[in-house]
């Protein structure tokens, strides 16, 4: 389970991630969703709704004593993220254990915020819900955990936020309001069309949820604007009636956002409406980021500090790394020797294998000076070739199988003579063909870079064709072309995804690979490449 050191300091999972092995041994329903990775670690497939639900239910039971039920067709919350939100609300209202009153807009089937707030802090909750299925499950989850005295679940009409929900409430002042707005405006956005940057990797977890939970007219931006409008109306209504001499019904209004781009326009809307107190933060948990916005009309509330930019810079500087243990290095050295590497140390062998993989992926790279007994490569990724590599290879093999083949027949002496002179001609023609293809696919690279890359691509293409015995091609052994000939001047590549420094270092009997971010559009792409290289090397060891 990917967690983040930038999680809220009080989040129980910040320094102690869930122990999947222990949880699997204790909870049979969770055990069936735990698998062993190539490195021997227990993992859960977050793209399976059943696995996500099992993990959420298991963590709530183990760490909070809560027993809940969630239908697969409704939103399945992740516990670390919800805890981050709860702890931030604690910061807003400046008190964890005192009796507080809160509103949860759209509590969902799990009713997770009220259940956590009531269990951890003894908070009272008014939880609203528009969906019949979610309302029934939320009510049941509250009752079976004996928390009906702290949590009131109410069914409200569609498009109801605060105004109508508070009509029949006798309580005048609430300490806070929480909300997970529907992120998307329509089905296309929910599927990532026109709403997700093309450079971003695909989501690492499944997207579950009913229509009312994930979609609303105008998406989260318009949804939160409606809450802002309701908060302004409530403020005016209570000032007009002078109930208990209070000018507000809620000390802090807050929402969690799924898109960072929603934060700025909402802050601008609050500024235009003259809201005096505004706070925002980030929720960091693994690869998932969320943003939260809160506002208040009270003069006596304290606004928490915004996210620490120094922390963000340190996160960017921290290298990605993985370790190859002594047990598998001998196999890797043998594999490096098989491709023509005359390396004498494990570091050199691993470096040679990494260079070959990078060449296959068309990632530009060159060796740069480094400390003794180490190797360093400067990488420039121009296109994302490491995503869905397995599917691409299967498709290539399928296309090769479907190529028309000439009928088997004995060669004449003249054909044999021509074939004997074919390798040089074939290699030259293949190189010319690949050169034109590379030129059209990668216009950003300079001529020297393309020249070096075309040599390696030419060899790889010829090797692939001979491997599948394509008619008319002569089998030949193609050695890995060193990439010292490739011009890797950073100024020669105008358009790139990212640049990084890859270090291969000895550590006692093991070898450690580190990737240091230099510049680019998205650090997640470097993370993906690091994972690809790690898995490729580990598979080599496993197959051996």
Architecture overview:
- Belongs to the methyltransferase superfamily. METTL16/RlmF family.
- It comes from Anabas testudineus (Climbing perch).
- Its main location: cytoplasm.
- Keywords: Cytoplasm, Methyltransferase, Nucleus, RNA-binding, S-adenosyl-L-methionine, Transferase.
- Its EC number is 2.1.1.-.
- By secondary structure, this protein is α/β, with parallel strands linked by helices.
- It folds into two domains: 79-311, 3-Layer(aba) Sandwich (Rossmann fold), CATH 3.40.50; 320-395 and 447-543, no CATH class.
- Helix content is 42%, strand content 17%.
- The protein has helices at 20-26, 28-31, 49-64, 79-93, 112-121, 132-144, 187-190, 211-214, 219-241, 263-272, 309-317, 326-338, 346-360, 389-401, 413-420, 422-441, 447-467, 523-543, and strands at residues 34-36, 42-44, 101-105, 124-129, 151-155, 174-179, 250-257, 277-285, 288-296, 320-324, 364-368, 375-381, 498-507, 510-520.
- A hairpin with a 2-residue loop joins strand 8 (277-285) and strand 9 (288-296).
- It is elongated, with a radius of gyration of 29 Å.
- The two termini are 29 Å apart.
What average pLDDT do the residues reach?
Answer: 76
CATH topology term of the largest domain:
Rossmann fold
For this structure, what is the CATH homologous superfamily of the largest domain?
Answer: Vaccinia Virus protein VP39
Radius of gyration: 29 Å
Q: Briefly, what CATH class of the largest domain?
A: Alpha Beta
CATH architecture of the largest domain: 3-Layer(aba) Sandwich
Structural class: alpha/beta
Tell me the number of helical segments per DSSP (H or I, 4 or more residues long): 18
């Amino acid at each position: 389970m990917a967690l983040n050191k930038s999680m809220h300091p009080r989040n129980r999972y910040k320094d102690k991630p869930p122990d999947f092995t222990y949880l699997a041994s204790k909870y049979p329903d969770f055990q069936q969703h735990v698998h062993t990775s190539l490195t021997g670690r227990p993992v859960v497939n977050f793209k399976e709704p059943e696995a996500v639900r099992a993990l959420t239910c298991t963590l709530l039971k183990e760490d909070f004593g809560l027993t809940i039920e969630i239908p697969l067709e409704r939103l399945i919350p992740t516990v670390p993220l919800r805890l981050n939100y709860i702890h931030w609300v604690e910061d807003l209202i400046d008190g964890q254990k005192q009796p507080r009153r809160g509103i949860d807009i759209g509590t969902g089937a799990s009713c997770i915020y009220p259940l956590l707030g009531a269990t951890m802090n003894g908070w009272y909750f008014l939880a609203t819900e528009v969906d019949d299925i979610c309302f029934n499950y939320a009510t049941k989850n509250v009752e079976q955990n004996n928390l009906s005295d702290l949590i009131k679940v109410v069914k409200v009409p569609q498009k109801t936020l605060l105004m109508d929900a508070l009509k029949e409430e006798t309580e005048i002042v609430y300490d806070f309001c929480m909300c997970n707005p529907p992120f998307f405006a329509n089905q296309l956005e929910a599927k990532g069309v026109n709403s997700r940057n093309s450079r971003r990797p695909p989501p690492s977890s499944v997207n579950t949820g009913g229509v009312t939970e994930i979609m609303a007219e105008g998406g989260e931006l318009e949804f939160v604007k409606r809450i802002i409008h309701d908060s302004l109306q409530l403020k005016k209504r209570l000032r007009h009636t002078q109930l208990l001499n209070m000018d507000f019904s809620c000390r802090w209004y807050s929402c969690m956002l799924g898109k960072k781009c929603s934060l700025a326009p909402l802050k601008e809307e609050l500024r235009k409406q003259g809201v005096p107190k505004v706070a925002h933060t980030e929720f960091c948990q693994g690869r998932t980021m969320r943003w939260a916005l809160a506002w208040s009309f009270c003069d006596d509330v304290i606004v928490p500090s915004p996210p620490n930019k120094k922390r963000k810079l340190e996160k960017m500087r921290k290298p990605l790394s993985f370790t190859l243990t002594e047990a598998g290095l001998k196999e890797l050295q043998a594999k490096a020797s098989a491709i023509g590497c005359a390396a004498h140390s494990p570091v050199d062998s691993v470096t040679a294998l990494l260079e070959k993989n990078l060449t296959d992926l068309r990632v530009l790279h060159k060796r740069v000076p480094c400390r003794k007994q180490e190797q360093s490569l400067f990488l420039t990724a121009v296109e994302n070739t490491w995503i869905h590599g397995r599917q691409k290879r299967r498709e290539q093999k399928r296309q090769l199988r479907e190529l028309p083949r000439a009928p088997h027949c004995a060669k004449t002496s003249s054909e044999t003579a021509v074939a004997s002179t074919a390798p040089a001609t074939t290699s030259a023609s293949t190189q010319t063909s690949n050169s034109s293809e590379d030129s059209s696919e990668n216009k950003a690279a300079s001529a020297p870079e393309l020249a070096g890359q075309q040599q390696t691509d030419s060899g790889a293409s010829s090797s692939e064709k001979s491997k599948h015995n394509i008619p008319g091609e002569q089998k030949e052994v193609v050695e890995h072309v060193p990439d010292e000939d490739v011009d890797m001047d950073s100024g020669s590549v105008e358009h790139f995804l990212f640049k990084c420094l890859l270090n291969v270092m000895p550590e006692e009997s093991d070898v450690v690979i580190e990737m240091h971010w230099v510049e680019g559009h998205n650090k997640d792409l470097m993370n993906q490449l690091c994972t690809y290289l790690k898995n490729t090397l580990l598979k080599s060891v496993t197959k051996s």
